[in-house]
């Protein structure tokens, strides 16, 4: 028995040490070279995209943007998503990809600051770090550039305006967001609150902000709660696709949408927000959601792929042109906007498939 | 209603009373319906979990089975949008049964602890769900109205609508009650949980009883996957059923079922499900700040456990 | 019982060989050591969880304990406390939170699954109520422990090895350790034998808490920030490691060595798959399958040992 235990202990240690020592020295010697200048050695630039989580159609669309230009740019592209969208789930992926020889890491950060150290280590090894869609708010020095879908400061006001128009600029409304700490959500909501000060919206009142954590069950319960707590509610804004989809179902169930069975004698509750077209096709067809907004996530992929492939070190004020896509300017804190907000409604929703 | 169920019921009444004082809208038909919307999913899965826990086991993979079934059924519907509803439900049941049978096989033939096997399948089935979905989710356009309408239409009593999903869930609860109370199989389940060795000596084939409960548990979780699609109108491979196992086990345990097996009741589990549904809805209706919700949830669970223990000791 | 560590050991060797074939970037000892820093907290908590599970209980609150202690420690540092004081404070806090679990289980005779389910939500809930969505940044002087190397080995890993030695000795070479095994095998028999069952249980949970406290310091240093949503799901990882290492969930069986080997195995498999660009969904399936395989192999191994012992 005693021998077995000692054997059990020694076996793996011996195996690892023997294997490790042999390879270790040559590996570490060559890795900095490999990740630093692939052009010099004639290899393809290795670009890896790390989305927030797997099974997310939004990021699948971003990846499509990469894939469409991967061949023409001559990059070796790969998507590696963590299984969950937790704050630290991407750490291991970052480390593994750097070890695996990635030259460019494009990441949609799950946390504004938990990834700082890991990204710094990557940069020290010569890896370029670009954030896409979700930036390291407050920690921008830990990445080289950011490609955001559209000017975030414009999203809040645009969403508010879209809701207001459908509400005829008066009445109570509520916001159903994702998690309390999602930086882009909070930025957009702040934008809405600031825009509310405009006299155009004087007759509208924001009664509550609730958080559905991007979970269907919780989002549905919160939406139902809104309907119960605020009998005079006239509008709901959900700038997250999970929240919007869940609320659309709740609103449909309740029959309180404009023109719905229980909306007789009252204007009906208006719903809008941000979502991919595919998730909203049914709701729009039924009139539960008149219109909503988003951008094409693939644009971000295309731009990030270009930046990565050319290993561009940008600074504010730089401009560059992507053939077929147009000119882009690098803004403050190295942020590049991919495009503008698209409004989807009955007239154009069938043209899109994402 | 036994002692333990009585305690759970008492706690429920107390909680509703206190919450209702702060927010009288709690008793409006809309809020009651909101609570009742939570019930079907938890109840159906909890019935399966009850069977498993009664035999002294546990099944942590039910959330992943729910997700797999939701995606699987969604894909089937995508290909055949006009599939009759009973077939859709049967499909979910069948998918769950297959996965549950896998659990059962490894537990019974591999002689491995159910906790370990289901921790393993919790991960493995979730992985398979992602693979099956190919990175996409099942959108609302793929789920027919005939399915989603079941979540909010049904029989209306006193302004409160009991949805068809709820009626389905209560029917399953009734069947479970009848099985446990009036069949040999039911008696064997209890016997296995109270004293496995004695049960074997009495000639009860523990292997087949165990196999059956894990298979049934899986089947019910699969059925819940269809109910999930009906309730939310969409299924995402990552979030469908995620962390659901802990909620269900909490519901079963709070309802007075001993986690070591051999003792428990359908009524207790129903009360536990109701209590948890209430907690989730009250958190939203009472306007409890989102940052305080998890703390409140934990405190309520702890108080429920303490109350149960205190009452047991007082009366014992 | 003593022959159980052989299974994770063999799997580890097989795994290493397979992993090295999967990707040329894997067999880099410096890289593997660097990756180990990601698992230091899991490892420490697994060492203590071994005690908990052997005693027939379970502790679902380890992740939440870690996070709460990490947030509190970060706040203390931000308030100007010195590093040594915060280190002591973190250990005390973690131990306290663990002891609360122990007290509820031992004195109030509440089932550990339910109690720790509740404290899992309460502890993390307190952290969330305290911080909300904000992060607490840690002072530069405190961060980067995972990059500090002594004799080319990252300090967190050394801390883990030291903890392994200490807990291993306690579990397998002291009377206390025997008490833990005894309680797990039969609590009633232990009580009749005059063992201080309640006190032992409280100490076991307190030990679990202590490891969370140390882990909290490590995670603070590694990430440089403290938030309420860190280390989600870590409790399941910890339990998986202890069980693959040979501990029986019903209590009475297990070993420190088994836990450590299982930890290396899990680390190895996940790192190998990560470096080989295996997609997350496949990784989930593999880890799940590995768990079942490991225990299956253990059972077969036991069968084999019993047969050969009988032959002898």
Overall description:
The complex is a heterotrimer of chains A (354), B (316) and C (312). With 354 residues, chain A is of the alpha/beta class. In chain A, 44% of the residues lie in helices and 19% in strands. In chain A, the strands form four sheets. In chain A, strands 2-1-3-4-5-13 form a six-stranded parallel beta sheet, sandwiched between helices. A four-stranded parallel beta sheet of chain A has the order 7-6-8-9, sandwiched between helices. In chain A, helix 6 crosses helix 7 (183-195). The longest helix of chain A is centred in the first third of the chain and has 35 residues, at 2-36. The radius of gyration of chain A is 24 Å and the shape is elongated. Chain B has helices spanning 3-22, 29-54, 62-79, 85-109, 114-133, 145-148, 164-182, 184-194, 196-201, 206-232, 244-254, 266-285, 293-315; strands at 154-157, 160-163. In chain B, helix 2 runs parallel beside helix 7 (164-182) and helix 2 (29-54) crosses helix 11 (244-254). Chain C has 312 residues and is mostly helical. Chain C contains 13 helices and four strands. The two termini of chain C are 18 Å apart. Classes of the chains: A alpha/beta (354), B mainly alpha (316), C mainly alpha (312). At the B-C interface, helix 5, helix 11 and helix 13 of B face helix 6, helix 11 and helix 13 of C.
Compile the SSE list and pairings.
The complex is a heterotrimer of chains A (354), B (316) and C (312).
Chain A: H1 2-36, H2 38-41, E1 45-50, H3 57-73, E2 75-79, H4 89-99, E3 104-107, H5 116-124, E4 128-132, E5 145-148, H6 152-167, E6 171-177, H7 183-195, E7 204-211, H8 216-229, E8 233-238, H9 241-254, E9 270-273, H10 277-286, E10 291-294, H11 297-309, E11 319-322, E12 326-329, E13 335-337, E14 342-345
Parallel strand pairs in A: 1-2, 1-3, 3-4, 4-5, 5-13, 6-7, 6-8, 8-9
Antiparallel strand pairs in A: 10-14, 11-12
Helix pairs in contact in A: 3-11, 6-7, 8-9
Chain B: H1 3-22, H2 29-54, H3 62-79, H4 85-109, H5 114-133, H6 145-148, E1 154-157, E2 160-163, H7 164-182, H8 184-194, H9 196-201, H10 206-232, H11 244-254, H12 266-285, H13 293-315
Antiparallel strand pairs in B: 1-2
Chain C: H1 6-22, H2 29-36, H3 40-54, H4 62-78, H5 83-106, H6 112-131, E1 136-137, E2 149-150, E3 153-154, H7 155-173, H8 175-185, H9 187-192, H10 197-223, E4 225-226, H11 234-244, H12 256-275, H13 280-311
Antiparallel strand pairs in C: 1-4, 2-3
Helix pairs in contact in C: 1-12, 1-13, 3-7, 3-8, 3-10, 3-11, 3-12, 4-5, 4-6, 4-10, 5-6, 5-10, 7-8, 8-10, 11-12
């Amino acid at each position: 028995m005693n021998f077995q235990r000692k054997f059990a202990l020694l076996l793996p240690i011996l195996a690892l040490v023997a294997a490790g020592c042999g390879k270790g020295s040559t590996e570490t010697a060559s890795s900095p070279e490999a990740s630093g200048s692939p052009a010099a050695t004639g290899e393809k630039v290795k670009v890896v995209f790390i989305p927030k989580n797997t099974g997310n159609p939004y990021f699948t669309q971003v990846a499509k943007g990469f894939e469409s230009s991967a061949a023409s740019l001559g990059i070796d592209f790969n998507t590696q998503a963590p299984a969950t969208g937790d704050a630290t789930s991407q750490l291991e992926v970052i480390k593994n990809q750097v070890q695996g020889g990635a030259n460019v890491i494009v990441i949609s950060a799950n946390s504004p600051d938990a990834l700082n150290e890991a990204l710094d280590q990557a940069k020290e090894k010569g890896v370029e770090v670009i954030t896409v869609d979700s930036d390291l708010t407050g920690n921008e020095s830990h990445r080289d550039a950011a490609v955001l879908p559209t000017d975030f400061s414009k999203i809040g006001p645009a969403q508010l305006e879209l809701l207001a128009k459908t509400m005829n600029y008066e009445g109570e409304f509520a916001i159903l967001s994702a998690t309390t700490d999602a930086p882009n959500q909070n930025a957009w909501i702040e934008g809405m609150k600031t825009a509310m000060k405009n006299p155009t919206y004087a007759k509208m009142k924001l009664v509550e902000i609730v958080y559905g954590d991007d979970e269907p069950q919780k989002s549905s319960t919160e939406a139902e709660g809104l309907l119960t707590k605020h009998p005079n509610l006239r509008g709901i804004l959900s700038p997250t696709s999970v929240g919007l989809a869940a609320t659309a179902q709740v609103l449909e169930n309740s029959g309180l949408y404009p023109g719905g069975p229980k909306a007789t004698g009252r204007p009906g509750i208006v719903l809008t927000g941000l979502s991919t077209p595919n998730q909203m096709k049914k709701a729009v067809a039924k009139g539960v959601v008149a219109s909503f907004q988003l951008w094409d996530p693939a644009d971000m992929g295309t731009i990030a792929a270009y930046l990565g492939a050319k290993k561009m070190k940008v600074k504010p004020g730089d401009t560059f042109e992507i053939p077929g896509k147009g000119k882009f300017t690098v803004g403050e804190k190295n942020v590049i906007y991919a495009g503008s907000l698209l409004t989807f409604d009955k007239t154009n929703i069938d043209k899109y498939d994402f | 209603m036994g002692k333990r169920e009585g305690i759970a019921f008492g706690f429920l009444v107390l909680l509703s009373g206190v919450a209702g004082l702060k927010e009288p809208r709690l008793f409006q038909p809309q809020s009651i319906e909101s609570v009742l919307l939570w019930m079907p999913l938890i109840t159906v899965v909890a019935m399966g979990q009850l069977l498993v826990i009664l035999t002294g086991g546990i099944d942590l993979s039910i959330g992943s089975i729910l997700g797999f079934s939701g995606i699987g059924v969604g894909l089937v519907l995508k290909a055949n949008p006009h599939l009759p509803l009973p077939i859709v439900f049967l499909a979910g049941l069948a998918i769950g049964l297959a996965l549950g049978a896998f659990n059962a096989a490894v537990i019974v033939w591999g002689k491995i602890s159910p906790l370990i096997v289901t921790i393993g399948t919790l991960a493995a089935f979730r992985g398979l769900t992602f693979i099956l979905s190919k990175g996409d989710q099942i959108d609302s356009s793929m789920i027919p109205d005939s399915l989603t309408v079941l979540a909010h239409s049904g029989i209306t009593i006193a302004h409160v609508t009991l949805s068809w999903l709820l009626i389905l869930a209560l029917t399953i609860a009734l069947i479970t009650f009848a099985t446990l109370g009036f069949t040999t199989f039911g008696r064997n389940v209890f016997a296995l949980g109270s004293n496995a060795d004695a049960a074997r000596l009495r000639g009860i084939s523990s292997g087949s009883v165990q196999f059956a409960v894990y298979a049934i548990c899986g089947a019910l979780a699969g059925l819940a996957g269809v109910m999930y699609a009906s309730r939310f109108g969409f299924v995402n491979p990552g979030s469908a059923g995620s962390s659901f196992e802990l909620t269900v086990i909490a519901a079963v345990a709070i309802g007075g079922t001993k986690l070591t097996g051999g003792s428990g009741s359908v009524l207790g589990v129903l009360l536990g499900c109701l209590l948890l549904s209430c907690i989730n809805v009250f958190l939203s209706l009472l306007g409890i700040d989102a940052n305080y919700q998890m703390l409140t949830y934990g405190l309520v669970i702890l108080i429920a456990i303490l109350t149960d223990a205190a009452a047991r000791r007082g009366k014992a | 019982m003593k022959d159980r560590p052989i299974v994770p050991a063999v799997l580890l060797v097989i795994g290493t060989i397979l992993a090295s074939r999967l990707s040329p970037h894997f067999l880099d000892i410096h890289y593997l050591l660097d990756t180990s820093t990601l698992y230091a907290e899991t490892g420490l908590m697994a060492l203590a969880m071994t005690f908990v599970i052997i005693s027939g209980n379970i502790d679902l609150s380890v992740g939440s304990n870690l996070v709460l202690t990490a947030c509190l420690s970060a706040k203390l540092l931000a308030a100007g406390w010195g590093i040594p004081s915060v280190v002591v404070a973190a250990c005390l806090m973690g131990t306290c939170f663990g002891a609360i679990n122990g007290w509820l289980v031992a004195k109030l005779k509440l089932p550990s699954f339910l109690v720790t389910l509740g404290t899992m939500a309460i502890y993390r809930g307190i952290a969330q109520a305290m911080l909300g969505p904000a992060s607490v940044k840690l002072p530069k002087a405190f961060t980067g422990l995972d990059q500090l190397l002594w004799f080319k080995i990252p300090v967190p890993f050394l801390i883990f090895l030291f903890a392994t030695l200490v807990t291993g000795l306690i579990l397998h070479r002291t009377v206390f350790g025997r008490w833990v095994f005894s309680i797990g095998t039969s609590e009633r028999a232990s009580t009749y034998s005059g063992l201080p069952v309640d006190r032992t249980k409280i100490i076991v949970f307190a030990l679990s808490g202590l490891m969370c406290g140390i882990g909290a310091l490590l995670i603070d240093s590694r990430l440089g920030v403290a938030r309420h949503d860190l280390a989600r799901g870590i409790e399941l990882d910890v339990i998986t490691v202890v069980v693959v290492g040979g501990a029986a969930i019903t209590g009475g069986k297990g070993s420190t060595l088994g836990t450590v080997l299982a930890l290396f195995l899990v680390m190895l498999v996940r790192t190998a798959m990560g470096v080989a660009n295996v997609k997350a969904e496949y990784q989930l399936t593999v880890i799940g399958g590995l768990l079942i395989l490991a225990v299956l192999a253990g059972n077969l191994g036991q069968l084999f040992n019993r047969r050969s012992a009988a032959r002898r």
